[in-house]
Design goal:
Structural class: alpha/beta
CATH topology of the largest domain: Uracil-DNA Glycosylase, subunit E
Order of helices and strands: EEEEEHEHHEHHHHEEEHEHEH
Strand order of the largest sheet: 8-7-11-12
CATH superfamily of the largest domain: Uracil-DNA glycosylase-like domain
Shape: globular
CATH class of the largest domain: Alpha Beta
Number of domains: 2
Number of strands: 12
């Protein structure tokens, strides 16, 4: 007789390929709804997997293999991002890094809204940033997440928590932050002017960061992934490269547009090593610290036209 009990999946981790390991332990709890529920990921019990005869005295049995979880694309991307965030915790950062901000944890509510609202289908184009800035994603949980653009144009808001260890001059105040991230404002205002509304941008594109954590020294200076040395850099690149491959496959990305040269180079390395056919392009980074970047919106628009991508972002 087929069991009609609730199955609670017990796995050590969800790998970046989004598949669940074989031989996962499953605990059966009395419930008329036969589902597996792990981190809000649900699928129906297969009648051949769970039977009363397969349970031992403790109610624990081993499933030989579990089919892919039929969750939507947004949830799959969030699982991938959370898996990467967890893997990056394995890296022990040394001097000069004194602070590590993980907005996928303390700003997950808003980040999850972003993914669910704007990433529910395959994306032809993936804009790729480097990692969170102190006044952007570190505050809102959104890549290049300048507070006003996130709230007023993307129409996202919510509760933002605090990092485990906070730098006194880089405090996270969420949507109460009075500082404007110029890079984020420039990026999103460009596509606001081109697209009119966010739906026109996200119809073909999505914005994603290569690395989801922010690194700072004791004084609050931002330390980019490119500045890391030795084992720290090797480990971080390894984890983030694997996650990027998984994201490309998941979203069926045809073109990656690196925002700046770092993102472009990492994408080139990842695509080549994974044997993917994804095209790699770049636009200049909108940072005000970049030389000759005063008219960034004009330069970026010209660059999109040269890449034959401007057509995807017209109203």
């Amino acid at each position: 007789m087929t069991s009609s009990k609730k199955l609670k999946l017990e796995c050590n981790e969800i790998p970046l390929d989004l598949s669940i390991k074989k031989n996962c332990n499953v605990i059966c709890e009395g419930d008329e709804n036969a589902t597996i529920d792990s981190n809000n990921l649900v699928f129906e019990e297969h009648k051949d997997y769970a039977t009363d005869d397969n349970l031992d005295d403790s109610g624990v049995f081993v499933i030989p293999a579990i089919p892919p979880l039929p969750i939507n694309l947004a949830e799959k991307l969030l699982v991938l991002e959370q898996a990467l965030n967890d893997k990056l915790k394995n890296i022990e950062f040394y001097h000069p890094i004194a602070y590590v901000y993980r907005p996928l944890e303390y700003a997950f509510e808003v980040h999850s809204m972003y993914v669910h609202k704007y990433c529910h289908s395959a994306k032809k184009i993936l804009f790729l940033g480097m990692n969170p800035g102190p006044w952007g994603m570190s505050q809102t949980g959104i890549p290049f997440g300048e507070v006003n653009m996130v709230r007023d144009w993307l129409k996202l808001s919510g509760d933002i928590g605090k990092p485990f260890k906070e730098q006194p001059d880089r405090k996270v105040t969420g949507f109460a932050c009075s500082r404007s991230e110029i890079s984020g404002f420039r990026f999103w205002s460009l596509f606001r002017d081109l697209c009119g509304n966010p739906e026109n941008f996200f119809q073909y594109a999505f914005l994603h960061n290569y690395c989801p954590i922010a690194l700072m020294d004791a004084g609050g200076r931002n330390i980019t992934p490119a500045e890391l040395k030795g084992p720290e850099q090797i480990s971080l690149y390894g984890y983030c490269d694997d996650a990027l491959v998984a994201a490309i496959k998941l979203l069926k990305v045809q073109t990656i547009v690196g925002i700046g040269r770092f993102a472009e180079k990492r994408a080139q390395t990842v695509v080549k090593s994974a044997g993917l056919s994804t095209q790699i392009m770049y636009i200049p980074h909108p940072s005000p610290r970049s030389v000759g970047n005063i008219n960034w919106n004009e330069k970026a628009t010209k660059r999109l036209k040269e890449l034959n991508l401007l057509q995807f972002f017209t109203q």
